[in-house]
Amino acid sequence: MSDDNQSVRPPGIWSVRGPISQPQYWVLAAVGLLAPLLAWWIASVGAGVDKVFLPAPGAVWTRAVEWWHTNNLLGDIGISVYRVVGGFLISAVIAMPLGLLIGTFRAVQALLEPLTDFIRYMPAVAFIPLVMLWVGIEESSKIAIIFIGTFFQMVLMVAEDVKRVPLAQIEAAQTMGASRLELIEKVILPSAKPALMDTMRVTMGWAWTYLVVAELVAANSGLGYSILKAQRFLQTDKIFAGILLIGAIGLLTDQAFRFAHRRAFPWLYLKG
User: Fold this and answer.
1) Which CATH number is associated with domain 57-269?
2) Where do the domains of the chain lie?
3) Residue 272 confidence class, pLDDT cut points 50, 70, 90
4) Positive or negative torsion for Cα 119, 120, 126, 132
5) Percent of the chain scored above 70 by pLDDT?
6) What pTM value is reported for the model?
7) If you write DSSP's letter for every residue of the chain in order, what string do you get?
8) Which one of 3, 18, 100, 142 is most buried, by most CB atoms within 10 A?
9) Rounded CA separation 217/139 (Å)
10) What's the whole-number mean pLDDT along residues 36-42?
11) pLDDT band at 42; cut points 50, 70, 90
12) 18 contacts 9 by C-beta, under 8 angstroms
């Protein structure tokens, strides 16, 4: 291949992994968000479409406003956020060191990874009877379901993040006389931190997906509970409103993690 051909790159925003400007990014993001909304509106106003099955966006907005004014939407959001964050934080506090040990020591990996792999395929909803029996039906039971849904996945993802630390870095530190504790504190953790933060971001998203399952356990408030209650009364507009609210809160959380990642590891975002 000639030098001229090697220097040719695809132009514009469609180049492979090519950079795009901030205005281009936000325009494309807006199109990606608004296009489904437009398709939904077109489908909902079509002839013969039963509003019970597909309410219009305007009807969903009206229901959300009514929910805010008359049915304590803010309280439902607050209790759901509390449950999700509580389950996620407990999961992270235990999973981070456990995943670190699995990814660092082959003996710990052999001891714990097969068991974790086995349990992570068990659906969290199947644990509801046991959680009610062991924990009860108070707030701790909802948090426990979210914990079960995220913990085992998080352990394995953290372990994989740690395993991806280049072996050359570890061997170089060992050559310089670093102890096992120093290897973990000064080599493995600093190298794995960016990936670990991304793992936290992904598993926080999973925590939100388990909210409705968690609020099956004798709940009388929360977004998931309200969605399930609306299902019984065929209030499809409220179901849509609840789902969209969960998605919006999840999106804001995800963007907060991304912002924190950029602030914590700015060198990863430097343009080459």
Assistant:
1) 1.10.3720.10
2) 57-269
3) very low
4) positive
5) 94
6) 0.85
7) --HHHHH----GGGSTT----HHHHHHHHHHHHHHHHHHHHHHHTSTT--TTTS--HHHHHHHHHHHHHHS-HHHHHHHHHHHHHHHHHHHHHHHHHHHHHHHH-HHHHHHHHHHHHHHHTS-GGGGHHHHHHHT-SSHHHHHHHHHHHHHHHHHHHHHHHHHTS-HHHHHHHHHTT--HHHHIIIIIHHHHHHHHHHHHHHHHHHHHHTHHHHTTTT-SSSHHHHHHHHHHTT-HHHHHHHHHHHHHHHHHHHHHHHHHHHHH-GGGG---
8) 142
9) 9
10) 89
11) confident
12) yes
38 alpha-carbon distance from chain centroid: 26
| Residue-wise pLDDT tens digits, 151-167 | 999 999 999 999 999 98
- The candidate with the shortest Cα–Cα distance to 169, out of 104, 96, 107, 113, is 104
